[in-house]
Write a structure and sequence with these properties.
By secondary structure, the chain is of the alpha+beta class. Helix content is 50%, strand content 19%. Strands 10, 11, 12, 13, 14, 15, 16 and 17 form an 8-stranded antiparallel β-sheet that branches. Strands 6-5-8-9 form a 4-stranded antiparallel β-sheet, with no helix packed on it. The termini are far apart. The N terminus is likely disordered.
Length: 491
């Protein structure tokens, strides 16, 4: 075994310790905490779990800031960012201190390794093996120190990144606070201007109200005085006499107007009779009947002629065929109101036409009568069956025609002739032909293969029944009309 001399300390100080390299980086101010275990192995001592690393502290603070960001106001957020910036600066200073300490650690490890290298050259045997193990331990410590420095360098970069982020966020927050403050000032100025304008408008309105109020009072006083003067001049008896005279004049005017219309129609009929061989006889209104009569010696007998009646719209003048109206007598029905009736007479191959002087007039009071019937629960009419399926009906007994909102029913006592709901196959219209009783008769096809000709008690009952049935059918989205009619009226 080689003996170590007393001059070992001086020799190590002079020869074994070289100058420290300039590129050495130290990141801690203290020597690594470790101890030697079994078989001379280095065992790291676990740090106190209560002491958090710098990376964990930064991550926790960042998470708390991000969590509270939504709940903070702009001013509080700016304050938080400034505190975070100060904390980041503090962490940066701590990192610099750790770098200086790490530099000291590298210097010590370098010196220790050089001393052990110098010692290994001077000893032999077991001591030399111990020195080599010590060198290996020092190298392992250097590797661990280098790894720790890499982690600290990464943490330093993250701290710098966080510091720059917090600095930018703080600047943005300050800018936002300034913008909000400027916007608030502008809004306050606008509000002050608006309040000032409102106050000026109120003052102007009050001034105008005072002036106009006095003027209105003066005008009202003048009107009251004028009214009193008129009341003094016109006594109630005189006013009533004037009203009675006006009412009488209005009634006379209405009578003169009716008489003028009758004269105009007669004049038109006379003009046509001079030109035509046939003319229409009868009142041109609902509830009556029209008859074709010869008015010239050249006219043939009606039995030797054929007839066809048409409807003409007063607006478009379009001619519509009235199916089944092929007799010299025709009784207008509610569908003809407001239309001109036109008849063609064919005799010896020649055709002559006659027409009403104007549209067919409605029956007086029929509309009000129908409205009164609509409000009743049950609407029934007494009828006599004249024909059934085109054949004369032998019995002349009275039946009852019930017109409901959903269906029509014909019965006699407890015996029901037919009961049908409104449908597209149902038809209802006035009898198109016949004698003087045509204005009181109606044609009703309850369904395909079953039809009736019904005689009512009066022309008013017949027309009211047709109008009611068509109104209820229209409510059921059914257009109830006669054979080949294009449409039925909505009422």
């Amino acid at each position: 075994m080689t003996r170590v001399g007393r001059d070992f300390g001086d020799t190590m100080q002079k020869e074994a310790v070289p100058p420290v390299s300039a590129d050495v980086v130290f990141t801690s101010s203290r020597f690594p905490n470790y101890k030697i275990g079994a078989n001379n192995q280095i065992v790291e001592v676990k740090e106190d779990p209560k002491v958090l690393s710098m990376k964990e502290v930064v991550a926790r603070e960042t998470a708390q800031l991000l969590e509270q960001q939504k709940r903070l106001s702009v001013r509080d957020l700016a304050s938080k960012f400034e505190k975070g910036l100060a904390a980041a600066a503090k962490l940066s200073d701590e990192a610099k201190l750790r770098e200086a300490a790490s530099l000291e650690k590298h210097v010590l490890l370098k010196k220790l390794r050089d001393a052990l290298e110098a010692l290994r050259g001077r000893v032999a045997g077991k001591n030399k093996e111990d020195v080599e193990e010590a060198i290996a331990m020092v190298e392992a410590l250097a590797v661990q120190l280098t790894q720790r420095e890499g982690e600290l360098i990464q943490e330093k970069a993250e701290v710098k990144k966080l510091a720059s982020f917090l600095k930018q966020a703080s600047e943005d927050a300050k800018k936002l606070v300034d913008e909000e403050r400027a916007f608030a000032r502008a809004e306050i100025e606008k509000a002050r201007e608006a309040v000032q304008r409102v106050e000026e408008a109120l003052q102007e309105h009050e001034r105008i109200s005072r002036a106009s109020g006095q003027q209105d009072i003066d005008e009202l006083m003048k009107e009251v005085q004028e009214a009193r003067r008129i009341k003094m001049l016109h006594q109630p008896s005189k006013v009533m006499d004037m009203e009675q005279e006006l009412l009488a004049l209005r009634l006379q005017l209405v009578e003169k107007s009716k008489h003028s219309l009758v004269l105009q129609k007669e004049l038109a009929m006379n003009k046509r009779s001079e030109e035509n061989m046939y003319e229409l006889d009868g009142t041109e209104a609902l509830g009556s009947y029209l008859r074709i009569c010869p008015c010239s010696e050249r006219a043939l007998e009606l039995s030797e002629c054929s007839f066809q009646w048409y409807r003409l719209s007063s607006e478009a003048g379009k001619k519509e065929l009235i199916s089944g109206a092929t007799k010299s007598v025709y009784a207008p029905e509610p569908f003809d109101v407001g239309r001109i009736l036109h008849a063609e007479i064919i005799s010896d191959g020649q055709m002559t036409t006659v027409a009403t002087t104007g549209p067919i007039d409605p029956a007086p009071g029929l509309g009000n009568y129908v409205e009164a019937l609509v409000r009743r629960h049950d609407i029934e009419f007494n009828v006599v069956i004249v024909q059934m399926n085109g054949l004369d009906h032998s019995s002349q007994s009275i039946h009852v025609l019930h017109i409901g909102k959903m269906r029509m029913k014909l019965h006699k006592g407890k015996t029901t002739m037919t009961k049908e709901y409104y449908s597209t196959s149902m038809q209802l219209c006035g009898v198109r032909g016949g004698g003087n009783a045509a204005a009181q008769a109606a044609f009703w096809q309850a369904k395909v293969g079953l039809s009736f000709v019904l005689a009512f008690e009066s022309e008013r009952e017949r027309n009211a029944a047709i109008m009611l049935a068509r109104r209820f059918a229209f409510d059921c989205n059914i257009m109830l009309a006669g054979p080949d009619d294009r449409a039925a009226p909505a009422t």
